[in-house]
Prior knowledge:
Layout (H helix, E strand, L loop, with lengths): L1 H22 L42 H12 L3 H6 L2 E5 L5 H14 L3 E4 L4 H14 L5 E4 L18 H4 L5 H17 L4 E2 L24 H16 L4 E7 L20 H8 L1 H8 L4 E4 L19 H11 L5 E4 L5 H4 L6 H9 L4 E2 L4 H13 L5 H17 L13 H5 L3 H13 L1 E5 L13 E6 L5 H7 L5 E4 L4 H7 L5 E7 L12 H11 L3 E7 L16 E4 L5 H11 L32 E2 L13 H12 L5 E8 L2 E9 L15 E2 L3 H16 L9 H4 L13 H5 L27 E2 L8 E4 L2 E3 L3 H11 L13 H14 L3 H13 L5 E2 L14 E2 L7 E2 L6 H5 L9 E3 L1 H12 L3 E2 L2 E2 L3 H7 L35 E5 L3 E6 L4 E7 L11 H4 L2 H11 L4
Helix pairs in contact: 2-15, 4-5, 7-8, 7-17, 8-10, 13-14, 17-21, 18-21, 22-33, 23-27, 23-28, 23-31
Amino acid sequence: MSKLVYRIVIVIVFFIFVNCSINKQVTKVPTVPKNQEIEFPEVTIDEEVYIPRIKNERRDFFPKTEGETVWVDSIYNQMTFEEKVGQLFMVAAYSNKDAAHSAEIDKLVSDYKIGGLIFFQGGPGRQARLTNRYQAKAKVPLFIGIDAEWGLSMRLDSTYRYPWNMTLGAIQDLKLIEKVGENMGKESKRLGIHFNFSPVLDINTNPKNPIIGFRSFGENKKNVSEKAIALMKGIQGNGVFTTGKHFPGHGDTSTDSHYALPLVTASKEHIEKIELYPYKRMFDEGMVSVMVAHLSVPSLESDANVPTSLSKNVVTDLLKKELGFDGLIFTDALNMKAASNFKKPGDIDLEAFLAGNDVLLFSENVPVAVEKLRTAYQDGVITEERLAESVKKILKYKYKIGLNAYEPVELINLYNELNMPAKNALTYQLYENAVTVIKNDDELLPIKKLDQKIAYIKLGDDDNTTFVSTLKKYTEITEIKETNLDSIKKQLKDFGTVIIGFHKSDKAWKNHDFNLQEIQLIEGISKQNKVILDVFAKPYSMLQIPNFDNITAVVASYQNNPIAQEVSAEIIFGALGAKGKLPVSITNQFRAGSGIKTESINRLGFTLPENVGMNATKFAQIDKIANKAIDAKMTPGIQVLVARKGKVIYQKSFGYQTYAKQVKVKNTDLYDVASLTKMVATLPNVMQVYDKHKVSLETTLGEMLREFKNSNKENITFKELLSHYAQLQAWIPFYKETLDANGKPSEKYYRKTYSKEFSKQVCENLFIRNDYEDTIMKKIINSPLLDKKEYKYSDFTFIILKKYLEKVTGKSLDELTYTNFYKSMGMNNTMFNPLRKFDASLIAPTEIDTYYRYTTLQGYVHDMEAAMEGGIGGHAGIFSNSLDLAKMMQMYLQKGTYGDKEYFSERTFNDFNTCYFCESGNRRGLGFDKPQLGTSGPTCGCVAMSSFGHTGFTGTMAWADPETDIIYIFLSNRTFPDSNASNRLSKENIREDIQKIIQEAIVE
């Protein structure tokens, strides 16, 4: 018999263990090293005490009207007892459950006249349809509520998610928090929701709190209060009620009330000064309702087994009487174990009502609860006065929210209105203000010098794509994918800086812990290299790091999503300055409220059009124009970039590298930019020479290059030369004189293999003799001048300037561009002869040459003269992509500065961006093209005369407008496969029409 009993006991224990494992979701909390335990100061007599206003001075978002009392009384006086009691219940509803669930809700609405529904998991369309269905069955319209602490997506799919409260807690600009509230309010109202059960007012002073944590705005009562007030103003200002929770304070607990009753050991004095502080302030600012938590707080309720939600001492005596709150009072969900373990369904509802609550949330058994309340009413335990107090209050708020004139939820266009693109623009602003630099030894951030080797190592198990791709937009980044520490350290030996990104799932309840190997890796690398640790996870995850001493810089990015990743990379490279402050303490070294402001060093950043005063929907027309050009075979592919106010707001690629449609164009692909070379390679170097006073506007060509002395070009001035006002020929087809009788490259001038005498590569397997460059220059020197002095665009200008630059500096043009500009500007995708660095598959082909080189030109310059100079021409030869070109144009817009470096003075830029011969009908600046003076020209005719840029033969354009602070880049290979075909891209004004759309998109 004893053996049988023993076996039965074992089975029972096993069943209990398995059952608990299945039904309880255990939230893992970070293990804090002993030396990292955070010390919180004791509450002292000096702690600020908030003195509430008198009631009639409190803000009222929903002021009383004459019709309110009349409607409330008329409804109440017609109600039966059952209908009155029904109003007290707010039942859980789901839009992702089956028909049986919906029928159950139908019955509660029709038969038990419940007062409201709290929706949980589902989707917006399904919820809207169910809301209309249930409301149609209700005699008195239902309250609809939802937990939407970070937006509707807390419960619903296909809706927008805002950052967690803890992320918002790092933001110092309260107007941004209010904007979040405004959006939340509009979204809830659009979906027929009356209560957003937020904001969370818990002050999270316990890092081990398993259920509040990231849901809190932080550990500081003022910070929590200010953020909560701002959020509430936004929500309630848009006609939706808010609910402060979890009264009297769930922040200093280490138990999840969904599974057990948490104990709060704080004294009443502590609770008065800390936990109740935000409630007092929120009441004065007009908060409509409060949700009471299931907690054991011996200092407020002497019976330790009575949850605060069921305590008359807490709900009536403290909340209603002491604090003077007369809004709606909700219980937290009555199905939570912290409450349901105390009483059975029905009994718990009665206890909650007797404690002073108005709305019984998530009742587990409404029919039983109604009977319990009926019996209590009949026995005199519940008086008519007490019942009327809550029911009339509920009806009063139904009137205030407009349920006296209920209208169904409009289903048409619901998804689009809940997910408008402008929401992402706000989220960019939120992360721009939240990301926090908590350590920055040696002012490592922002990284200023790009001429160092920088590595990136990923930790964590979630996506890092946007972070890495954005880092690479600033400079070359080497990804280290080894996992063995010794191997990693060996690879990192020559690297100046190592960026370690810790990426954990952005889902709310996922584990964000570092594992032991990751901590050891951080420690090992930081002893050898300068390390920037960027944590895309809850800040408490950093509690596990035993020592930060060797880590040079630490960034808290809070969440792991594409916008957070992009913004954080911008801060690392100085496109943005860091502004955030820690909402919670990580160690005693990094306390809540700390945060290092870093500087912006005027590098290009990234955002959405709305954030720079542009209409995002207008940009869809760019897509149409680009696709039209490709469909009509004006060009196989296109890159388009638009930037404004130092931010890239549109960057897309269209089509394929060729009409064979085998390789799609990517934003990183390189294009032969043709004459843009003049503006992005030769011109900036000329400006530096001018800036150093080595040449002036009136310096003559004979003074610049002795070869031109005693020639017909001797007296051409620097100003005339750069303005295309020097009477020079447009060009000479130099290559033709190097072809044999069959029209093929002559052996007199070319070889198929490299040698010292034939080292200049024209294309694959074709090299020209080194001295032919001198022949070209002689032909230019000896060429006749045009008869008339007028504007005439000429390639000779920049062929000559290349010669001058190489003479005056002693360096080749490709070396000059890289050393003086590209290297320090992070233009790592811009160069002459790109095949020396990039695979041909990354370069759009320019032409199938059938007249000179007899090959497909892919990675070799299209321009024949530049090819004859070994691919390095002063007028052509650069390959680049839209982002790299935008960097150069941004430097020009900033009048010579970029990335905290001055390349030339503002005076120099202004001198070059001046039209000196406009009165003579010549629109040109010095090297820059300018808007047309008449009806035809390079632009849409809708940009400022101070704007500048250039176009290129291959179908390219780069333009900047100082008046609107806009950069526009257009790249294509319209010359493929035949450059001699009609230039329909130009004739049909594709580039100009896109520029016009950009101008029309400006809203401020």
